[in-house]
Amino acid sequence: MLKVLWFLALPLPVVHAALDEQVVNFLEQHCYDCHEAGTTKGGLRLDDLAADFTEGGSIDIWQEVLEKLETEEMPPKKKEKPATADRQQLMEWIRARFAEHDIDPVIDHKRRSPEFGNHLDHKALFDGSHQGHAFSPPRLWRFGPHAYDRFIKDVRGLRHATTIHQPFAIDESKGVIADYAAKHFADSATLQLLMMNCRSIAEYQTTGILKREHDGKMHRHQNTPDPFRVILENEESPDQAQLKTAIAWEYQLVLEREPSEEEMTSTLAFCENAMRTAGKKRGLQATLVSIMLKPEAVYRMEIGLGKTDVHGRRRLSSIELAFALSFALMDRGPGKVRVGGESLLDLAREGKLESPGQIRSVVKGILDENDMSTADFTMFARDHKIRNTRVLRFFRDFFGYHHAPRVFKDENRIGIDSGFDTRKIVNDCDQFVMNIFDKDKDVLRRLLTSNDYFVAYPGSFEKFEKDLGYIRNNKNDQNFKFNKSYIERTEAAGRTPIPIEGPSSRKYVGFYNIDHEAWDYPTEQPFPLPKEERAGILMHPAWLIAWSGNFDTDPIRRGKWIREHLLAGTVPEIPITVDAVIPEDRHKTLRERLTATTAKSCWNCHEKMNPLGLPFENFDDFGRFRKSEMLGELLSIFPDRHRKATSVPVDTSGAITGSGERALEGEVANAFEMVHKLADSDLVRQSFVRHTFRYWLGRNESFHDSPTLIAADRAYTENGGSMKALIASLLSSDSFLYRKSQP
Q1: Would you kindly state where each structural domain of the chain is located, as residue ranges?
Q2: pLDDT at residue number 460
Q3: What pLDDT does 307 receive?
Q4: Residue 204 and residue 161 in contact, taking contact as beta carbons nearer than 8 Å
Q5: In this model, does residue 38 exceed pLDDT 70?
């Protein structure tokens, strides 16, 4: 105690003199019980902490103290909470010390990452107490891999002519919004790959590229644009008019605009000099590379070049807005995104993107025109593509179900020829979410509760009827006897046979608890599965597999996902001192083995997760509905042994706690009761709105975005649960349209 007082007695600016004693009092009252000699919980000791902001170890501790205070993770909830004013004073004191020593608070960097989004008080975001004028910071938003792929496809024929490396990568963490403006930048490795690609593109545009074809011979693929051909095929030196035409053509291809007068002058001089030095072909290639490496070809530039309003905010110019909208919705430039017969670029130039109402109408039009066109078995054809791919990636990022193929499963555990195919299951889930999106009514509720599922035709996609005839008539098929009896038995029962040559692919439907021998394949989908077995995406095999382990279900991570994505809550990171391993005792159920997490040192975090995840024990780690859990040799690769194993009824009880919403709190008997309670919750809907904001704005929300979030939530509810209205509201909001530098 005296030691701390001695440190805090060091000379400090007068403005902080009265606060020093309060710092000591705060630590004594709220921190020392758990973080002094003999009780250093979490490996953190504070009773000998120095007010030394020049020593690394001391700085690290103060960084942690500031983070715990600002996120209100400490003191723990069972301890006396400090007064808001006292907590605020200590945070200001720490920040002032950091500022004096030019130290950046780590908490400020963390707040810009998607994993840290929920630490902002949820009620304060939606209660209307923040009435400020929303904006985003000026930024360069680096292109993602999907936008780059679209650009390569737009360079006609290039993808088939040469290998292009993907220079852009995004966060592949499960359940995290991947594409954040502040999270990705073009580092040296990215720029090196971009340079290689630009050289390949320039070579292809000017000379073509040799490629070995199926006949074993090398063939030259060439698609030289006319402005370049005029220069390259003429023996005479090109004149300036020809060079200007070639430069303008490349600007339009890469940047979708004409070069400015200054750009034309400098690029022309560069081109002429390069041709004198390296010849026409090499000089032209160098010029094309210089255009393809301009910042606009690497970043979405959202600076705010429009008018400045009375609040000091700069509006995106009409051209900036056209690019921002096109990449928000379609992964490509505005000249190639059309709505109502006009491109976004034309609409911007004609002044038709000025008012929020105009923008909402355009956004809605783009989303409507890119709905899926069919809802039958042809949706599973290989050439069928979901057109609102940016929307699909939001659902994938939010729910994380597309990670199912990354979870290793030894399917020998359930028998060889099981038909287990996670790629098909993920595709089924894509169809499920996009069908709900296209109908655009009660989107979140239907995502959480609908039992109308898609199950892929498990045969050769393009040959539905052809395969059926082949199987019925081909007597040389090694599975002929099986197929013949199967078809006769199925058709005699008045059902549609699944036309597939072998039995294993038919068994794929078993992961939906469908008996492949008795199932009449519905060519028109979606179709209802039993309500007592499936309800919504959280009971879809894709989500259940993605949020499972290699050999077990995973109530902890499932519960964590619900806490963070649907309840706007937070779960602290696992301390490095904790060995987070569940006891491996196969004679106990997983719920029984999870009792290890109820220890005092664990339960503070696990009470936020376990009760939310355990109701999903009605499903095994392959996503199949079950009523009992097998004990014993669960990991055996000999399925015959499983039939002799002991099984016990599954306990699916759980609870929703700590949400702060009274109507939501309480025990639940199973996952079905839980998802319906979640679907009725204002908190869950608002949490969904927050994640939608993060995806389309490319950053975490802040308090000055409160009016934007409230308006988006209102647009969703007033339009009957329309996600299209929600997206349109966000993309016409002040948070999207205005830029202003933050202090």
Answers
A1: 2-110, 145-178+187-297
A2: 42
A3: 94
A4: yes
A5: no
